[in-house]
Amino acid sequence: DAKTTQPPSMDCAEGRAANLPCNHSTISGNEYVYWYRQIHSQGPQYIIHGLKNNETNEMASLIITEDRKSSTLILPHATLRDTAVYYCIVRAAGNKLTFGGGTRVLVKP
Amino acid sequence: DSGVTQTPKHLITATGQRVTLRCSPRSGDLSVYWYQQSLDQGLQFLIQYYNGEERAKGNILERFSAQQFPDLHSELNLSSLELGDSALYFCASSTGSPHQETQYFGPGTRLLVL
Question: Which of A66, A69, A77, B25 has minimal CB crowding within 10 Å?
C-alpha cells in the first residue's frame, strides 16, 4: 500500500472548519484513501473513505485531487470533541491498515 | 459504538506469564484483524483471520498466536510475556468482501506487564 504524508500537528478554532491535508503521491489505481481518528487511547474510529470522487458523510467531507496524489479531510464545524489524532491511510481492498504518525489536531475554544 | 467488543478492558500480569485477549466482531463480519499499539511503535498490524482461516500476517512475534473460532470470535494469545509487550491491543472487523470494505475497531485491551 502507498505511503502517506501528513503534518504532525495542527490547531483549529472551535466552530470553524478543519482542513487536514494528506499526500499520497504513489497511490495506485485500486487503492482507496481512508481516514480514521483516534481520541486519546480509544479504538481508532472510521471517518470516511474514497477512491476517486469526493465523498461526504455525517462526520466529514473528503476531497481527492484529480490526479489522486493528495486529499483533504474537512471537518465542517470542529468541536472540542474532535480533538484527536487523524490518520490518512491508503490501502487496497482487503489489505491491512498501515498507520503512520497521523496529524494531532487540537480544537481550541 | 462500533459493534466490536473486546475483553478484558485491562490486564495486569507478570513477565513470563501467558494471557488471552478476546474479540467479538460486528454481526455479519467474517474478517478479524489484530493490531498492537505501543508508545514507541504506533499502531502495528499483527494478524488477520477470515472465516476461521489465517489470511495475512504482520509483525507478530512467535510468542504470539491467534485463532478465529466457528462463531467468528477471535482470541489473541500472548505467551512468555516481556515488559515490552505492554501495549494497547485492538481488534477490528470487516465484512471481508473482496471489494471496498471498512474495518471497525473495538475499544481495545490495555495490557501491562510488570
Answer: A66
